[in-house]
Amino acid sequence: MTMSQQPPSRRDARPPASRFSAMFRRTTPAAWLGFAIVVLYGLIALFAPLIAPYGEAQVVSSVPFAPWSQSFLFGTDQLGRDVFSRMIYAARNTIAISLAATVLTFAVGTTLGIVSAVAGGIVDMVISRIVDAVMALPQLIVILVLLSVVGSSVVSLIVIIGIADATNVFRLSRSVAMNVAVMDFVEDARVRGESLTWIVFHEVLPNILSTLVAEFGMRFCFVVLTISALSFLGLGIQPPTADWGSMVRENATLISYGDVTPLLPAAAIAVLAIGVNFVVDWFLHYASGLRDDQ
Amino acid sequence: MRLILKTILERMALAVLTLFIVSVLIFSSVALLPGDFAKAVLGQSATPETVAAFQKQVGLDRPASERYLVWLGGAVKGDFGNSFSSRPGAERSVVSIIKPRLWNTLILAGLTAAVAIPLAISLGIAAALWRNSWFDRSVNAGTLTTISVPEFFVAYVLILLLAVKFPVFRPLSTVRPQMGFAETLENLALPVITLTLVITAHMMRMTRAAIIGVLGSPYVEMARLKGAPPLRLVLRHALPNALAPIANVVAFNLAYLIVGTVIIEAVFVYPGIGQALVDAVRTRDVPVVQACALLFAVTYILLNLIADLVAIATNPRLLHPR
């Protein structure tokens, strides 16, 4: 923690070229693979309508559960919709909803966490006790209870997961911000008479950013897995919207005939999670490596 | 000894307090119901009269604090009231829905714990003993993959391999009261293997990390210089001091196991409490959801309490205070 005491601008003092070479030296094959996976998923999500041969909810065949063929790459599902097209649209839906939920998680969790650490006293105590109580329940149970009350829709999914998951981010950002909040430059800002908002966003946040970025990746994975699990249970993203979790559920009967089609969407989730994990690992090494160089 | 007793009592009081707050949280999620809730349960065609009758039946016309006390009083006695699915003349109590399923889930979770905990701890110890060997590396890589994969993926891969391609086990798990132990085992094999794979990974990695952490401390270095063999070094010197973090991670994973059963029960169509919870959420049967959530919370808090107590009871510093 002693290193973060230096002003953050110090990191940019080195010439850009050597910074990039340092970055590439530390890029392992696993990290490249992770990057490739993340970029690929991102492109598929962005350009889903251009890539998919058929529409998301378009019934293209009168044969339900048609086998793999030239016209239907992964066959058709229980309503005769093209599985390949739906997987591509699912990438878009799952990633967009997960990203929105993760962003909300961090907006709520980080703000409350840093405010808690900087303000201290009664504010810190009240927020911390509430978070402790929520975390005394398993997360999936919290989400299920809230879903049973407000019902499942895209907005309620994002808000509920965003709030339920914010507790983890709160704990992390609070504990990291605690270390920064006692430093001289924060005290200096306090004496200068800066507002709480200024201290939170201009003094503390930049210094804990690298930890938060790594955590963002991990949380994103977790949210993708949660949403897929909910959709798999039939409580998440509702049909006819395509989603990897619900696709597994819809095609599950094929498993008993030895068909691997239901495994494809599940594998799509797994590959994304592993890819993001690789990138996060690389980032953690890279961030800590930079600190060693200074 | 007094120090230990005091710490233990403190932890237990804290657990009771947490449980109280959690019960308030679970209950208030319903007290804050949006207005159209009765419509959502009764359907769009509900007349104002039926809505009013439903609210009276559920008790929404009384103040929230009173309802909470009635609910908590009933819950302590094991009475969670009636499910929303009960109609006049055909009452269905929450307990009658949950009770048989709770037993099924306990069997599933108990069997998994009995397999997974010894397996994870011995794998962790072995990996710590032979660090950076091929064994360590392959176990590490294997566990890393099972961590980042959704539970239902593991479950379906196992069904495909062990029930369809090579029909060793049954793809669906049913339990009947008159089933013998051997038959129960055969029926539950696949869900137990799946859950074991899912929770062993984390436990094993934490066990390895905890032991390696202790192996770096000076007193272990001392024992090594004295010439203690590696196995004795790990089991006799390192393990007792690593027990607290291991107990914690075991409790955490058992708690996770409870959540994992929700999904695994759905895959194997197993009539457990997780299925009851999912069905209740789908039909928005709030009393059942509350009862299940409270049960999960109690188990979760109890497990954490036990882990704390184990950590206290095995802490050499607390056992032999200076």
Description:
- The complex is a heterodimer of chains A (294) and B (322).
- Chain A is mainly alpha-helical and 294 residues long.
- Chain A has one domain (28-62, 84-293): MetI-like (MetI-like fold).
- In chain A, 71% of the residues lie in helices and 0% in strands.
- Chain A is built from 11 helices and no strands.
- Chain A has helices at 16-25, 29-46, 48-51, 83-119, 121-135, 139-150, 154-181, 184-192, 196-232, 244-251, 263-293.
- In chain A, helix 2 crosses helix 4 (83-119) and helix 6 crosses helix 7 (154-181).
- The model of chain A is unreliable at 1-12 and 290-294 (pLDDT under 50).
- Chain B has 322 residues and is mainly α.
- In chain B, helix 9 packs across helix 10, helix 10 crosses helix 11 (273-283) and helix 10 runs antiparallel to helix 12.
- Chain B starts with a helix and ends with a helix.
- The model of chain B has no long low-confidence stretch (mean pLDDT 80).
- Classes of the chains: A mainly alpha (294), B mainly alpha (322).
Helix content of chain A: over 70%
Largest sheet of chain B, in brief, is: none
CATH topology of chain A: MetI-like fold
- Assign the structural class of chain A, choosing from mainly alpha, mainly beta, alpha/beta, alpha+beta, or little secondary structure: mainly alpha
Q: Termini separation of chain A (Å)? A: 13 Å
CATH superfamily descriptor of chain A: MetI-like
List keywords for this structure.
heterodimer; A: mainly alpha; MetI-like fold; 11 helices; 0% strand; disordered N terminus; B: 322 residues; mainly alpha
Put the structure in a nutshell.
Chain A has 294 residues and is mainly α. Chain A has helices spanning 16-25, 29-46, 48-51, 83-119, 121-135, 139-150, 154-181, 184-192, 196-232, 244-251, 263-293. Helices cover 71% and strands 0% of the residues of chain A.
